[in-house]
Amino acid sequence: SFPCEALIPLRYPSEGNLFCFLNYDIINTMAKEYKKVIIAIVGLVLIIGAGFFIYYLKNRPSQEMRDLLFLPEGAVLTEEQQIKYDTARTVLEENFNNGLAFIAIAQIKYELSDLEGAVRVYLKASEFLPDDILIFNNLGDIYNQKEEYGKAAEMYLAIIQINPKWINAYRELSSVYFYNFPERYVEMEGLLLNGIEKSKEFDGEAPVDFYSMLAVFYDRTDNLAKAIEYYEKVVELTPQNQTAKMRLEELKHNANATN
């Protein structure tokens, strides 16, 4: 039999028999409570699912990212390169804002002679590491190889702005101007003198090629006294440099003939 408190006695007029029926007020109350619980659970599941979906949308690799991580068809990696690539890719799958991981991918692309791919990845890395000199130095080297000298010059200028102590940038920018931009040739003097000054400030002495480039610059611009001065410095630093010695003697002879 049913519990009396959960039932109500009703008499069907046609049959005259006493039947016990469920107390629908109690049942309705219980149903409403269950419904609330179910709604709450469904709502919680939807919220959690929406959170995961939003996280996925924010962190899923875009087509751009897939292109950046793609290696040239038929690429064969050494064991060291494979480990480096797999590690970097794993990091980027968790955090696509990791500039160092992009640098690792760019280096591998460069080693595989995928210069275009390396440039794209280095530029992406620069978005997260805007003051990383290695990125701009490597980009400058690649642009030089691709004979895109204007872009190479931009990279070396960027390095000088970021860190004036980076001596190599003065040398490389001077070389770009020397060989590829006659209209900017005159800027070499200031660049090389600044490079020598920074070198002396931080290293005690400048690399000899700074003096060599200045000697050639003054030689080509007919500044005889300055050319002799810097060729003498070159010979002092590299006594075995026969080319510099011969040119120094020629300039001294010309100077004496003029006087």
Walk me through this protein's architecture.
By secondary structure, the protein is mainly alpha-helical. The chain is built from twelve helices and two strands, in the order E-E-H-H-H-H-H-H-H-H-H-H-H-H. The protein has a two-stranded antiparallel sheet with strand order 1-2. Helix 5 packs antiparallel against helix 6 (133-145). The longest helix is centred in the first third of the chain and has 36 residues, at 24-59.
Structural topology:
Layout: E1 7-11, E2 18-22, H1 24-59, H2 63-69, H3 79-94, H4 99-111, H5 115-128, H6 133-145, H7 149-162, H8 167-180, H9 187-203, H10 208-220, H11 224-237, H12 242-258
Antiparallel strand pairs: 1-2
Number of helices: 12
Number of strands: 2
Uncertain segments of ≥5 residues (pLDDT<50)?
A: 1-22
Overall 3D shape: elongated
**Secondary-structure-derived class:** mainly alpha
- Strand proportion, as a percent range, falls in under 5%
